[in-house]
Design brief:
The structure holds three protein chains of three kinds.
Chain A: E1 29-38, E2 45-55, E3 60-64, H1 71-79, E4 87-96, E5 99-100, H2 109-112, E6 117-120, H3 124-127, H4 134-145, H5 150-163, H6 169-172, H7 182-193, E7 200-204, H8 212-229, E8 232-237, H9 240-246, E9 249-254, E10 257-263, H10 264-269, H11 274-282, H12 321-325, E11 331-334, E12 337-339, H13 342-347
Parallel strand pairs in A: 3-8, 3-9, 6-7, 7-8
Antiparallel strand pairs in A: 1-2, 1-4, 4-5, 9-10, 10-12, 11-12
Chain B: H1 24-33, H2 36-53, H3 55-58, H4 90-126, H5 128-143, H6 146-157, H7 161-188, H8 191-199, H9 203-239, H10 251-259, H11 267-294
Helix pairs in contact in B: 1-11, 2-4, 2-11, 4-5, 4-7, 4-9, 5-7, 6-7, 7-9, 8-9, 9-10, 9-11, 10-11
Chain C: H1 2-10, E1 21-33, E2 44-56, E3 60-64, H2 71-78, E4 86-91, E5 94-95, H3 101-107, E6 111-114, H4 128-138, H5 145-158, H6 175-187, E7 193-197, H7 205-222, E8 225-230, H8 233-239, E9 242-247, E10 250-256, H9 257-262, H10 267-275, H11 315-319, E11 325-326, E12 340-341
Parallel strand pairs in C: 3-8, 3-9, 6-7, 7-8
Antiparallel strand pairs in C: 1-2, 1-4, 4-5, 9-10, 10-12, 11-12
Helix pairs in contact in C: 4-5, 4-6, 5-6, 6-7
The chains are: A alpha/beta, B mainly alpha, C alpha/beta.
Chain lengths: ~375, ~300, ~350
């Protein structure tokens, strides 16, 4: 997979075009057996437990889960942003283009963060500096990672603002964050994030704070970013609608664990974990005529309270005796789908534990890279 | 305590997992033993209170009894802290003086907390003209330094016990009123206050049930901190001669009396100064610990 | 006199049939003015403008719109938690705006509220039984503490919580459980009308379904009406009988659920519906992407306030404000009547979707 040529990506950074040729065999991001604990060392609470997934170059992966599923902590761990002391990564690898970010020197991390991996958050207001102009803030992101003259930089900022759909970009360079609406601020955040043409964009609930018509605009923008810049996306969301819209692969998390991982069609057409099934049935849809919603009984277990067995056991309609005793590993359901469920594994005769097999994350670019 | 509901009548989707009860006792224990300084403070406070309560029984001499045979004596086996210029036993005067400090230290902040909170909550909850009047009044009081205000009032009213209490109380009211008003403004925005209105509660009930319990933490913290200030203020007033009047003992006027013969016999000043410092410091340390438990957000 | 009316409210009605108008709202409006401190007129925000509608006995009217459209303010105006600038609300024959504070308080036995924020809406220093029994005490519906505890236990099990929790404090409960407690508080006095202000917006997907189902079950067994305020159109589809859509303080479309979802006649309703991301990767709806943002409510555009973002706006839309008018034609069937839209070009699917 080669980088999109300059002509099609006007905001592409100077000097970056040659560097990003990746071998297709190696995923862009590979998270392996990642575990994060919080609290005192004597009685730690494990909020992320053995999470593994991959993001291909140019691919888009969604992590979906409810509050307490550990999805946001996972994304912070990838960025090296786990607040410590209370939190720490206790095991696992986060490989970006073959380098383990967790073993990388602290000093080199900011270099990758922001340039190769960028992040956008749920609340754009708190992520922007209220006393700096929009132009300066985007300029700062560029200045950190690239050498450019003042004029070049200014030109670039205007280009970026145009890309994310800020009307009259030249006129808005001197504006402050509070002069923008929520949706516009999220656009500015996205402009900052893609300023250095990152290879991976991590978006943590990017549209949750936005109204539905504004959400539609921002989702459209994320598609455009992927198309024009060929940026891989790791999207964290509780909203299956948003996930279905943006992602090619989906990782379902529950109580700190990955319970299912598959391409987006399999997740929605053939969900293999009882939790995924329950989640899909419980969401209200615009076009369905059920008078009553399906409900998963009970509530998400408190972090760290499930000591053995499957964390979904207490709420699971299909549970068997084994589920209470042993945490199921990830079983391959099909070539591109894995689920951590004893019942599913039993039903799929001949399914083998795919813990080590590592089903390759598909993805890649589905749409043509032309604008 | 008996309830008519049998488990069988519960709806099938009964949701039965809740978080464990947070350990309040553990938090208190941690507050006391978590820091050495708090243990020190509690020990000093305990000694102070016991001494003040038991003063008549434990003081070796009558604090007012003069003896011309032993004037300005240094510490000895008979007089552990020596004697003053009238030959009175300094230790006995210190012990009796602690009662004044304790009374002023507890009564004034408590009264100030009651009046100040009432004013502050009224201003904060009702807002508008009520708020403007009360706030201006508080600003007016705040414009004077506490000590100056106390001197002014004491000079007008004289130095009787309740006058001094009144003086210190008035000096402290603005602080409580401001904290109460600011906290009330914040709590009033909470959805549960709107919920109380929607439920149909009367305004006084809302204030008592839903506002005051939720602003209590900063008020209690302020109170513990101001016990120390009250003790200090009482000593200052007595030192200036408008607090506790001679010959009655108070830590403030022990220092004042001792000043006349600072170089000849420094013992009274050293003893009273040390006692004031220890007690004030202890109440401050204790106040910090209380704040850490009740009001973790404002703690550094 | 008030008491007699309250009594009436507690016992289920038998005299009147379900479906008649319980609440009538006429020309209700609210203007918030800023900067009154400094005497200048400041900028006035028209949060709600001329809202007129009815809520029938036992039905759920959903009020949808984006943030800042005035839907929460409108809900509070109905309960007089915010005093209206003009207009009238008639509840079961009683004109609310004329009531004294005390009479209004008595009225609250009939009209309760469920709040959006499950964390903020329960007093942190009061036990669950104190929280739930508060309205019961206000209206003298429990005499002894034993009776109170029995009633609380009953209510807790009705909302799917174990009665053993009644002496616990809110901080021990999850968001969904707290929302159940809030619901128990609201239904404790057997109200006839409940304003539910985004009751499931702050909850996780799986919990959301539990609460929506609970609210429906309670309505079925008790027959009260809901004003269900929401921004999520898919949730509304499940719970509403009729839907009102608000934009910039005004109701732009109102009608039976089937009409709003199958034949939306205002371009804004259209855009809202099309913007909901479908939880299905294979059925992609043609999405109407609106231009720009919601205008500042302190400076509402002239004419039709939606014209700045409307894909089918004409010159007339900038000049003339369209009235909320019946969309049904002469040949309309009974189910199509009562579907009103405020658009000069109102017709089902006015925006060509391609």
């Amino acid at each position: 997979m080669t980088q999109t040529p300059m002509t099609q990506a006007p905001v592409l950074a100077q000097g970056q075009s040659a560097t990003a040729t990746t071998k297709p065999a190696r995923p862009l991001l590979k998270v392996e057996n990642l575990s994060v604990e919080f609290g005192p060392k004597a009685s730690p609470i494990r909020v992320v437990n053995g999470v593994s997934f991959e993001v291909d170059a140019g691919g888009s992966v969604g992590i979906v889960g409810e509050s307490g599923s550990g999805k946001s902590i996972t994304s912070l761990a990838v960025m090296g942003l786990i607040p410590s002391p209370p939190g720490r990564i206790v095991e696992g690898r986060v490989e970006f283009e073959g380098t383990n970010l967790l073993e990388m020197q602290k000093a080199r991390l900011p270099d990758i963060r922001g340039r190769d991996i960028a992040m956008i958050f749920q609340e754009p207001m708190s992520s922007l500096n209220p006393v700096m102009t929009i132009g300066d803030q985007i300029g700062e992101a560029i200045k950190l990672h690239e050498k450019m003259s003042r004029e070049q930089r200014r030109e670039r900022i205007v280009e970026l603002l145009k890309l994310v759909g800020i009307p009259n970009p030249e006129g808005r360079l001197g504006a402050y964050p509070h002069q923008f609406s929520g949706g516009m601020r999220q656009r500015v955040m996205i402009a900052m994030a893609v300023a250095c043409n990152p290879k991976l964009l991590i978006a943590d609930e990017p549209t949750t704070a936005l109204d539905v018509t504004i959400q539609a605009q921002v989702l459209e923008l994320m598609h455009k970013i992927r198309r024009t810049l060929n940026t891989s996306i790791l999207l964290i969301s509780h909203d299956l609608g948003v996930i279905a819209d943006v992602c090619e692969r989906v990782v379902v998390m529950y109580a700190g664990r990955v319970v299912e991982e598959a391409d987006v069609k399999s997740i929605f057409r053939n969900p293999s974990h009882p939790y995924t099934r329950g989640l899909l049935q419980s969401i209200p849809r615009l076009n369905d005529e059920r008078s009553r919603l399906y409900q998963i009984p009970g509530s998400v277990p408190l972090a760290g309270t499930v000591k053995k067995g499957c964390p979904f056991f207490a709420r699971c309609p299909d549970r068997i005796g084994r589920c209470a005793e042993e945490m199921p590993p990830m079983f391959a359901v099909s070539k591109s789908q894995r689920a951590a469920c004893w019942v599913t594994a039993g039903a799929n005769e001949g399914a083998t534990a795919a813990v080590t097999a590592g089903v390759t994350a598909g993805g890649g670019v589905s749409e043509g890279a032309t604008a | 305590m008996s309830t008519v509901i049998q488990p069988s009548s519960l709806s099938p989707d009964v949701d039965n997992t809740i978080a464990p009860e947070p350990g309040f006792r553990a938090a208190i224990m941690h507050m006391i033993f978590g820091r050495k300084s708090t243990v020190f403070a509690l020990v000093v406070m305990l000694i102070f209170i016991v001494v003040a309560v038991l003063a008549p029984w434990i003081s070796p001499y009558d604090p007012l009894a003069q003896s011309f045979l032993s004037i300005n004596k240094p510490p000895s086996a008979a007089h552990w802290l020596g004697t003053d210029q009238f030959g009175r036993d300094v230790l006995s005067r210190m012990i009796h003086g602690s009662r004044n400090s304790l009374l002023f230290g507890l009564i004034s902040p408590a009264l100030a907390a009651i009046f100040g909170t009432a004013l502050g909550v009224t201003a904060g909850y009702f807002g508008g003209a009520v708020d403007r009047v009360i706030s201006r009044l508080i600003d007016l009081l705040l414009a004077f330094p506490e000590l100056l205000l106390a001197i002014m009032i004491a000079a007008v009213l004289g130095g009787a016990f309740w006058n001094i209490i009144a003086v210190i109380t008035v000096a402290f009211i603005p602080g409580f009123a401001r904290v109460a008003r600011a906290s009330t403004l914040a709590v009033k925005q909470e959805p549960y206050v709107e919920a109380a209105v929607a439920v149909g509660l009367r305004t006084p009930t809302i204030i008592i049930r839903h506002i005051i319990p939720n602003i209590a933490a900063p008020i209690v913290v302020l109170m513990t901190l101001w016990v120390a200030s009250a003790i200090r203020l009482e000593a200052s007033l007595s030192f200036l001669g408008i607090g506790t009047r001679a010959p009655n003992p108070s830590w403030g006027n022990i220092i004042r009396d001792g000043l006349n013969n600072l170089f000849g016999s420094p013992w009274p000043i050293i003893a009273a100064g040390f006692a004031i410092t220890c007690v004030v410091l202890s109440f401050n340390l204790f106040g910090d610990a209380v704040r850490d438990v009740l009001d973790p957000e404002t703690a550094e | 006199m008030m008491n007699a009316r309250i009594e009436e409210g507690i016992t289920p009605r038998t005299g009147k049939q379900a479906g008649d108008d319980f609440i009538t709202v006429e020309g209700l409006g609210k203007t918030f003015s800023e900067n009154r401190m400094f005497g200048s007129s400041g900028s006035a925000v028209r949060a709600v403008d001329g809202a007129s509608f009815t809520v029938r006995r036992g039905e759920t009217l959903a009020l949808v719109g984006e943030s800042g459209c005035g839907k929460s303010t409108l809900g509070r105006l109905l309960l007089r938690l915010i005093e209206a600038s003009e207009g009238e609300v008639t509840v079961d024959g009683t004109r609310l705006m004329a009531l004294s504070q005390g009479d209004m308080r008595n009225m609250r036995a009939k009209m309760q509220m469920i709040f959006q924020d499950p964390y903020g809406s329960l007093s942190p220093r009061r036990s669950i039984s104190q929280i739930i029994s508060e309205p019961l005490e206000v209206f003298g519906m429990v005499q002894s503490s034993r009776q109170r505890r029995e009633r609380v236990a009953e209510l807790l099990s009705q909302v799917g919580l174990s009665p053993t929790f009644m002496d616990r404090y809110p901080r021990q409960f999850s968001g969904g459980q707290r929302q159940r407690i809030g619901i128990a508080r609201a239904i404790s006095v057997n109200p006839q009308f409940i304003v539910a202000d985004e009751p499931v917006s702050a909850l996780d997907v799986s919990v959301q379904a539990q609460i929506v189902n609970l609210m429906q079950d309670l309505q079925q067994s008790r027959g009260f009406s809901y004003l269900f305020i929401a921004h999520d159109l898919s949730v509304v589809r499940h719970i509403a009988d009729r839907v009102a859509v608000m934009y910039l303080g005004r109701i732009v479309e109102i009608g039976p659920k089937a009409r709003i979802y199958n034949a939306p006649s205002h371009p804004y309703t259209q855009a809202l519906l099309s913007a909901v991301p479908e939880p299905d990767p294979e059925t992609r709806r043609a999405r109407i992407i609106l231009k720009g943002d919601v205008p500042n409510p302190a400076n509402v555009p002239s004419g039709c306030s939606f014209h700045t973002r409307c894909p089918i706006a004409q010159d007339i839309c900038k000049r003339e404000r369209p009235k909320l008018a019946e969309t049904a034609t002469a040949t309309a069937t009974a189910t199509e009547i009562g579907h009103l839209a405020a658009c000069h070009f109102a017709k089902p699917m006015p925006i060509p979707v391609g």
